[in-house]
């Protein structure tokens, strides 16, 4: 049997050890990405990206929900101002014919077209069958108001007049305004609605 040279054995073992070290070193060295930049070689741990995205989405949803809740709370805390531009006024009309008919109530906020119902700002129809009636109207309290009424006995929707142009159906005005010739002016019938003016008394003729 041939005896191996100790020097040869030492060289062979040294080479094997070097090969093993190179192999282990290649396994432990991190793989650097080809892209340049300080963060190019950084790779997130498996599952980190999904977890981070889920947390970000949850945080965004919580922020949106909180913002919406705060907005609704703020809106609920805002007091709604009461409508102070109108005043409910009671109207009491007397002197009517005790006949089932309609009472036309025309409300005017200016002298234009007064007292013709077709030129009024609003016209209300009240069913009556007695000599008096009482009802309520919501009227502006910031400007003068004039009221003209008539009882439509024949149901034609108009104030019936005789051949001389004089009304033959009951009619009247706020302030019980009267005029010697023709209807009274808006200024004669005008008033400002308030708690002190209620009820408004109108006696038809």
Topology:
Elements: H1 6-28, H2 48-77, E1 86-94, E2 101-108, E3 122-128, E4 132-140, E5 146-152, E6 171-173, H3 186-189, E7 200-203
Parallel strand pairs: 1-7
Antiparallel strand pairs: 1-4, 2-3, 2-5, 5-6
What this model shows, in words?
With 205 residues, this protein is α+β, with helices and mostly antiparallel strands. It has helices at 6-28, 48-77, 186-189; strands at 86-94, 101-108, 122-128, 132-140, 146-152, 171-173, 200-203. The radius of gyration is 48 Å and the shape is rod-shaped.
Which series of helices and strands comes N to C? Answer: HHEEEEEEHE
> What is the CATH topology classification name of one domain?
Immunoglobulin-like
**CATH architecture type of one domain:** Sandwich
Strand order of the largest sheet: 3-2-5-6
Low-confidence stretches: 38-42, 75-82
Q: Give me the count of strands.
A: 7
Principal-axes geometry comes out as: rod-shaped
Distance between the termini: 154 Å
Number of helices: 3
- Specify the CATH class of one domain: Mainly Beta
Mean pLDDT: 79
Indicate the percent of residues in helices. 25-40%
Rg from C-alpha positions?
48 Å
Strand content: 15-25%
Query: Which structural class should the secondary elements be placed in?
Result: alpha+beta
What's the story with the biggest beta sheet? 4 strands, antiparallel
């Amino acid at each position: 049997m041939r005896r191996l040279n100790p020097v040869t054995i030492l060289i062979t073992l040294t080479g094997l050890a070097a090969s093993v070290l190179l192999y282990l070193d290649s396994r432990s060295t991190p793989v650097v990405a080809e892209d340049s930049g300080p963060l190019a070689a950084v790779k997130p741990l498996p599952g980190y990206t999904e977890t981070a995205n889920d947390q970000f989405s949850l945080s965004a949803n919580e922020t949106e929900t909180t913002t919406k809740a705060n907005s609704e709370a703020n809106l609920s805390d805002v007091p709604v101002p009461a409508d102070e531009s109108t005043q409910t006024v009671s109207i009491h009309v007397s002197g009517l014919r005790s006949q089932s008919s309609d009472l036309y109530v025309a409300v005017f906020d200016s002298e234009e077209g007064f007292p013709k119902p077709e030129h009024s700002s609003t016209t209300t129809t009240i069913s009556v069958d007695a000599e008096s009636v009482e009802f309520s109207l919501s009227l502006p309290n910031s400007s003068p108001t004039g009221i003209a009424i008539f009882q439509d006995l024949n149901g034609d929707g108009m104030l019936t007049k005789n051949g001389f142009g004089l009304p033959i159906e009951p009619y009247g005005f706020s302030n019980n305004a009267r005029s010697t010739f023709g209807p009274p002016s808006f200024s004669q019938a005008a008033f400002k609605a308030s708690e002190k003016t209620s009820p408004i008394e109108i006696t038809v003729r």
